[in-house]
Amino acid sequence: MAARRVPMPERPAAERRKDFDEVPLGYTPEEAQQEAQRCLFCKKPQCVAGCLVGIDIPGFVKLIAEGKFEEAADLVLVANALPAVCGRVCPQETQCEIKCVLGKKGDPLAIGNLERFAADWKRAHGTCPLPPRPSPSGFHVAVVGSGPAGLTCAGELVARGHEVAIFEAFHKTGGVLVYGIPEFRLPKAIVRDEIGRLESRGVRIVTSEVVGKLDTVDELLEEFDAVFLGIGAGAPIFLGVPGEDFLGVYSANEYLTRTNLMRAYDRERADTPILRAKRVAVIGGGNVAMDAARTALRLGADEAHLIYRRSRAEMLARAAEIHHAEEEGIRFHLLASPTRILGDEKGWVTGIECIRQKLGEPDDSGRRRPIPIPGSEFVLEVDAVVVAIGNRPNPIVPSTTPDMKTNKWGLIVADEKTGRTTKERVWAGGDIVTGAATVISAMGAGQAAARDIEAYLGNPEPQAWGAAAPTE
Q1: Dihedral sign from CA coordinates of 399, 403, 407, 413
Q2: 38, 47, 289, 394: which could join 284 in a potential S-S bond, CB 3.0 to 4.6 Å?
Q3: Rounded to 5, what percent of the chain is helix, strand, coil?
Q4: What local confidence, expressed as pLDDT, does residue 367 receive?
Q5: DSSP symbol at 109
Q6: Cβ distance 56 to 168 under 8 Å?
Q7: Does residue 174 contact residue 193 with C-beta atoms inside 8 Å?
Q8: Nearest Cα to 236, choosing from 256, 217, 216?
Q9: What is the distance between the alpha carbons of residues 180 and 258, in angstroms, rounded to a whole number?
Q10: How would you list the strands of the sheet with 384-387, edge to edge?
Q11: CA distance 147 to 152
């Protein structure tokens, strides 16, 4: 049994930093079979316990090992409505792969790479028809938000015979999958294909529909038997330092949305072009910060600096994304935190002042708290700053649904196992409940809520609503 996994082929850093084409190239059939044959096919597979949507991992891996690629993809689709997405952006290394027995003496099985392979094979060669539609249940469900939570919830419900309508505020469907994650990590054609499969199964999608403005949740409840809120948490958080109002300061939300959703990199045809800065500073240490810094290079920056207040060990970004950023020439400034943004007399950014940090005792996150070192200030000359330190929920839906409880951060209070909110016939899941998290955790929440909606619709007694009390 090979101790080392089959590496995923990638495009050279010097080439890929100049365009938005995908970086990993995917397995060949031979590479996929070779990697799948490393699996021990455990009788009690712990990897399945680490999958938030419950994919039969040994089952689909065995099918790949046998060369039954389409059957493998179909098996994944039983539990996962977005396998080509998850195979690319989910942190398998901290979820299913970390539990793999092979990891005790070598590399864990490359479950994510194999999931991607199976999904891509299905897209390129699939011949099996969609599963037959079940008999109509007579129930109608509204899903607000077309990100991973909403898409998963809709897929689960339409497969059970319910009529499902998704309401999306943007003009394109996909939520964070289309506006937040760059093309070089997740090609948008893949997202469109995944969504197209849901539409083919009967999901109705309405775009440019801002629930809370055009329709309230209460108005939806007049038309639908249940409502699921998967609206994410897309309002930006800023640093709160002097100079943050200078021209050339962006939230990562705006920077990535303009680039990914509105194609700001296409200067000749974009309706919302973006500043072509030559020296860009990005603040943060998560995947969004890596995405923003790598995007800056592809928009023509000569230098992209990433400023993070802790050490590399505390970074929340995936190891692969950090590695790719370093390969592409992103300059890391670790244990540093901005104190002010500098600008000229015309109001444009000219630099950013930072102070060096040292690590103290762990804080509430379990990571060591950064402590400023007096007198250690330094200045980086930059002409744009992108702030990627997190998001908060948009208050539009909660503010127009006053009888639905939110917590002190503005997140919707919902039962973690069922997604039930404090408002009857309303469920919620994903970032609007947990705060910023992973695509797969949002999908798990959408799946759990769909199953509870199914149970409720089969027994919609008022007294049943109190069976699962929402928690903070």
Answers
A1: negative
A2: 289
A3: 35, 20, 45
A4: 83
A5: P
A6: no
A7: no
A8: 256
A9: 10
A10: 249-251, 384-387, 279-283, 303-308, 331-334
A11: 8
Q: Which is nearest to 168 in space by CA: 232, 222, 258, 218?
A: 232
Output the six-digit token pair for 172.
């394109």
Domains of the chain listed by start with CATH number: 13-125 (1.10.1060.10), 140-234+393-467 (3.50.50.60), 237-390 (3.50.50.60)
pLDDT exceeds 90 at position 472: no
Residue carrying the six token digits 């998850």: 86
Helix 29-36, helix 111-125: angle, nearest 10: 140
Mean pLDDT of the chain: 91
**Location of structure tokens 């995923």:** 8
pLDDT, tens digit (0-9, with 9 covering 90-100), for 141-190: 999 999 999 999 999 999 999 999 999 999 999 999 999 999 999 999 99
Return contacts of 450-454, CB within 8 angstroms, 24+ apart: 450/152, 450/153, 450/154, 450/155, 450/156, 450/157, 450/160, 450/228, 451/156, 452/417, 452/418, 452/419, 452/420, 452/427, 453/141, 453/153, 453/157, 453/226, 453/228, 453/427, 454/156, 454/157, 454/160, 454/162
Neighbours of 284 (CB within 10 A): 24
Structure-token pair, residue 276:
């072509």
Each residue of 30-68: pLDDT tens digit? 999 999 999 999 988 999 999 989 999 999 999 999 999
Q: Count the neighbouring beta carbons within 10 Å of the beta carbon of residue 395.
A: 12
CB of 123 closer than 8 Å to CB of 193:
yes
Question: In angstroms, how far is the first alpha carbon of the chain from the final one?
Answer: 46
User: Tokens representing 296?
Assistant: 């800056």
Rounded distance, CA 65 to CA 46, Å? 19
Q: What is the pTM of this model?
A: 0.90
State the Rg of the chain over Cα.
Answer: 23
User: Are 106 and 64 in contact, with CB atoms under 8 Å apart?
Assistant: no
Q: What is the Cα–Cα distance from 209 to 298, expressed in whole angstroms?
A: 32
Token pair recorded at residue 304: 């992209």
